[in-house]
Amino acid sequence: MYTTVQARELALLSRVLSRQIGLLIDRKGRVQTVIVGEAGSLYIPELPRGRSSAERLRGLRLLHTHLSPDGINQEDLMDMLFLRLDAVVVLTVSALGEPMQWQGAHLLPQTLSQAEAGQSHHVEPFRPWDQTNASFAAIAVALEEEFARNGDGVSTASEKPRALLISVGTPSRVLQERNLDELAELAHTVGLDVAGRIVQRVAQVNPRSILGKGKMAELEVLALQGNASLLVFDGELSPAQLHTLSDITERKVIDRTQLILDIFAQHAQSRAGKLQVELAQLRYTLPRLAGKNRAMDRLMGGIGGRGPGETKLETDRRKLRERMTHIRKDLERLRQQRAFIRSRRSRVGIPLAALIGYTNAGKSTLLNKLTRSSVLTENKLFATLDPTTRRLRFPSEREIILADTVGFIRNLPQELMDAFHATLEELESADLFIHVADAAHEDMQQQINAVEAILEDMQLHHVPRVLVLNKWDLLNAAARDDLAEAFPHALAISASNGSGCTILLEELDRRLLSASHLRGA
Fold this sequence. Notes:
The chain is of the alpha/beta class. It has 16 helices and 19 strands. α2 links the parallel β3 and β4. α5 runs parallel beside α8 and α10 runs parallel beside α13. It is elongated, with a radius of gyration of 30 Å.
């Protein structure tokens, strides 16, 4: 653990300086860093990034002095937890500068119930300073093996990144759990494995830190146990919350909006789609630049500059704004092109019906079935991002343009609403909405309400629509009867096998019988 010579020298020097002194020692007993603190505290400087696997400890233990007879305190435990140290050892020092006793602590592998009970660490009893037979290196190795077993024993080098999902808010626990179910779907779509989840219901969300340090300590232990390298929060974190959380933990912290933006970035195929995603990402990033990196505070020199010059942070902000202006101009040109196409289509007299609905409700599958197309369909959220239009001809010789649009989702981030205005303009020119709902989803009513709320925000609630209950084949007889009673005017279909599609086509033909009735004044 330490040599008696080290203990004597450390105690004497600490008393002479009237400061705590710490040593960061690796598993071979070599001192890597010497830290000089204050009389009652020790500030650990920023350390190199942790070792490669998320379930591994840092490979360093902290030995430091206390000038009082007090042993390990809460600050020591928090340092051990958030820095993933192998152990923390406190050596108490007498008034004469002699070593007196030592006390050590290390983490514990645990279950979720243990974590909620606060059993995240083990603190050794005080021992005489010269009894140094404890082997914290061996304990650290054993801990890592246990963490790996709890994380299914699979190396992170060969699997997807693992994430811990967190919900902090005022809604009921049942609603928070349902929201985390959707967040888990988003995580799987973006390529994450869910290592665990935690729900905290609060009377009011802390506007600065969202979570206290004690609760963050629980999350850190759960993340360590579940081999999670990311903490994903439901909802959108403010810049202050994001910075505070990033200061506390070394794990990557993201929110639901970032997750959705990442999915959009993966699925954007057209030039318009890629530009809109980039604009949304820049809008999200701009207010979160401050404090993101200490290097941003460094000044950038320049010949002819008066005063301190332009800071790195100001430069980054200016570049982001310039790029956003450029993207908006490009999108405006694309918007004008689409407006011309819509105008030409309007002159021809072909009406437009837009498929709308919650993400993954089956809109693209329905488009393929009705028009015999091969638009990409996946059992993932936001599989369709770029709008797709197909011409549909009825037996009555009438035609319509059928448009597949990006799926909606509850609390759609404002950055996406604004950035995707060019895409959503396709809805503004629609003569009819075909609202596709996932009848097999337990939250179908909430999803329908979310879509209706977005249409209300977009001032499109006046457009006539047909409600289609998709995936009817996945329901049992009792569930079908309940939905038929709750939604008597809805059409029940299965886009995957085509059942009910003939009735839908007849309804569309009837609705579009005369262009003069399309918008139903």
